[in-house]
Amino acid sequence: MVNVELQIPARSPYVGVVRLALSSLARTAGMDEEALDDLKIAVSEACANAVLAGEEAGSDEAITVHWIEDGERLMVDIADPSGSPPDPDAAELDTGGFSSRLVMSRALLETLVDSCEIESVPTGGIRTRLVVNRPAG
Amino acid sequence: MELGLGVRNLDGHAVVDVKGEIDVYTAPKLREKLIELVSEGSYNVVVNLEAVDFLDSTGLGVLVGALKRVKAHDGTLSLVCTQDKILKIFKITGLTKVFPIHDSVEEATKQSG
Q1: Which residue of A has its CA nearest to B62?
Q2: Is B18 contained in some domain?
Q3: How far does the CA of residue A1 sit from the closest CA of chain B (Å)?
Q4: Which ipTM did the prediction report?
Q5: Which residues in chain A have their CB less than 8 angstroms from residue B21's CB?
Q6: Alpha carbons B18 and B7: distance in angstroms, whole number
Q7: Which of A71, A73, B54, B108 is most exposed, with the fewest beta carbons within 10 Å of its own?
Q8: CATH code at A32?
């Protein structure tokens, strides 16, 4: 089991830092480049959503990214202290008839990893859990 | 992490060559550049993504915003991209139906506007 926790300020320049750390962790774990590219986008989406939610809320509470790796899967938890769970009733399209950024973000999160769960946290905010199953053997 | 932005004119189009990573940090720089071009009267725009290593929903949001701006002037916004990892982002979000995506800048300037 490998556990790595990274705490970043809820500001946009630090999302790139998370990607750099993630690349290094994924390569150490033997993840192939295509799966890494997908995971990088999913983690960036969760972090970008957290940064934008923090900006909107006027909060500077840190974002925590927790990498957990075992024999069967890689799990990345992103704790977003200002985020809200997806609203199933929210409009999918903006006024111009295009998908809103959040809808596109959710499509990427749900497609690029094996599982994506977004849960409310009792202390406030949300936790996004991304899971990538590792090939057997 | 820097975003490189170069602008050139080709066959009546403003071609924006983007280099680097487009994410929540750098996307506002791309947005500013595209708004500037439209406000200066460039309504046929090609965004060249061939040297882009990373793109997320904030970058997509900027491209959609720019498309709306040029369309308000009966203009066009097309993209140049052949990288599978970037094309995948457009496919997942359904934007391959929204943007004309070309293999080269020359092809993009010939087929739009």
Answers
A1: A101
A2: yes
A3: 29
A4: 0.93
A5: 16, 19
A6: 9
A7: A71
A8: 3.30.565.10
